[in-house]
Amino acid sequence: MERVKKILGALLVVAVGLGVASIWEPDRPVDTLTAKWAPPPSQFLELEGLRVHLRDVGPRDDPTPLVLLHGTSASLHTWQGWVSRLEDHHRVITLDLPGFGLTGPWPDGDARLERTLSLLVELLKKLQVSRCVLVGNSYGGRLAWEFAVQHPESVARLVLVDAGGYPRSSTSVPLGFRIAQTPGLRRVAEFVLPRGLIERSVRNVYGDPAKVTPELVDRYFELTLREGNRAALGRRMDQVPAEGDTSKLKRLSMPTLILWGGKDRLIPPEDAQRFKADIPGSVLIRFDSLGHVPHEEDAVATSAALETFLASPLPDPLPRGEEGGP
User: Fold this and answer.
1) Rounded-to-integer distance, Cα 54 and Cα 204, Å
2) pLDDT for 251-280, tens place per residue?
3) What are phi and psi of 273, to 5 degrees?
4) Where do the H-state alpha helices sit in 58-112?
5) Is 323 a member of any domain?
6) How confident is the model at residue 2 (pLDDT cuts 50, 70, 90)?
7) Domain count of the fold of the chain
8) Secondary structure (DSSP) of 225-281
9) What's the CATH code of the domain at 117?
10) Is residue 89 part of a domain?
11) How high is the pLDDT of residue 7?
């Protein structure tokens, strides 16, 4: 009997070891991911100590290029459906924000919002963009409106897609985000990452989880494994409060479009109404069947709404020194 117990114990240890080995996922050097996830027209720019992964496509003579900012744990690839529909007539710039995609984390660990806003200023200077249409989803939406408040002269139009900034009232948070917000668990997740966890998290933010393909999960999974990204996510959660100073939204005077998924459980549609109430003259379009990343889930319908917005005449820019109102 004692021998049987020992054998069973040994088998249990082996089983646990094999189980851990199957989900053991160390960081992957960026060079091993570049060929797959950064083919042309991808390029890399050295900015403020980072090697920023970006794509800059479309006509060079576009006076107000689109700059698209992705959300937490996403990458520039989330906008590909839009880019393919816009690039014939618009210059479109997408990038992996610091801590995500192939750009990776700030070397000194400082992930404050102000740091990324400063990077965007430098990026626009580098690309010789004096005025743009600034678009952001989720965390990228938070960056977009904060940037527009600070640099209204640089933003011809603003587009917020399920944007962050109000006190969080989520009805469901992806498991990956919950782990990143828990210090002990997120340390484990830096070494152990089941692909199923990523799949579950992506399905959580879609209105129709059946649209989540294995290829989509592969993208999120592999780019999460980029060296330093998992640790950077935890630092971002610590250093950037979910709630911003939304009283500043009333200063915005540029045309603003708000797009929202009616099935968004991470940032519910009630926040869309808040943005509409706080941003003077803003327009809200809701897509009832879509979730937190409506641009990715249905690029056709959402980009059509954007195109209609872009076709409306722009007001004349205010004289320098008068931007943003009182």
Assistant:
1) 27
2) 999 999 999 999 999 999 999 999 999 999
3) -65, -35
4) 80-86
5) no
6) low
7) 1
8) TBTTHHHHHHHHHHHS-S---GGGGGG--S-EEEEEETT-SSS-THHHHHHHHHSTT
9) 3.40.50.1820
10) yes
11) 38
